Amino acid sequence: xxxxxxxxxxxxxxxxxxxxxxxxxxxAAVRGGYSKLQGQGSAMDAVxxxxxxxxxxxxxxxxxGSVLNAKGEVExxxxxxxxRYLASGAVSAVRKVANPVQLARLVMDKTSHLCLxxxxxxxxxxxxxxxxxxxxSLITEYARMRWKKNLAADANPVECQxxxxx
Amino acid sequence: TVGAVAVDAEGNIAxxxxxxxxxxxxxxRVGDTACxxxxxxxxxxxxxxxxxxxxxxxxxxxxARLILFHMEQGRSAEAAADEAxxxxxxxxxxxxxxxxxxxxxxxxxxxxxxxxxWAAAQQQTLHYGLYTGEHFTQNI
Lengths: 166, 140
Description:
Chain A is of the alpha+beta class and 166 residues long. Chain A has helices at residues 16-38, 43-55, 100-110, 118-127, 141-149, 157-164; strands spanning 4-12, 76-82, 87-94, 115-117.
């Protein structure tokens, strides 16, 4: 068996000034995750490592640099799935967490549930000693700029994301 | 949205996906990412998928599981992804992209959007691209 890891950033349109760094980010993430596969790491270790690296890269809509909701806050979703046993864990509308994918893995590993949401996910994170970060620390100037632009009544956030603004 | 799929040396398969969601979304809106079969699926017997794109459209067609369904019917990862993405576009007008692996370590990157940054690593080779049809390689 030849180990393999494949990663993606978001589908849509990436503004010219962000193209190079977006491409560099996925390459760095795949290198980081692949190093796990080359060691003793499992496929699960590799995908969580790669996605963690992408969450920490502010050029992507996940973790640091996430887009903002209508209130100007960050709410994130994440999922992991292990193909051995169809085990899965997910979090939704989670706040104040730098790496939701790691929290999703904890949901899979430490609970009998598939998905925890909102404040429940936050309580679970605290009970696991998972680090909480200020919500503001996940917001970038770029995310704030896009949020402001799309507050207009006639704005179409889906169109902006997929076709115009990236 | 970001995501990954992998097959390890023992043939085990996994996927992970993470997102901040949709720009200026309603508070409490949850998209495809947190939903099993939509924002990701992994089964050692079939393969794994991590998608990105318009979350509501992905949920309506359960994109990740749909691709694996096509693979169960004998399609390659690439053909299955193309078929499912075309179905999503035709049926609900949604655009997106996916990364896919199968248990043999065959992999595919497909998208119906303008761009999707992607990268893959296998046999000490790094593969990457951004636009449709782009596929560069370099040694790791």
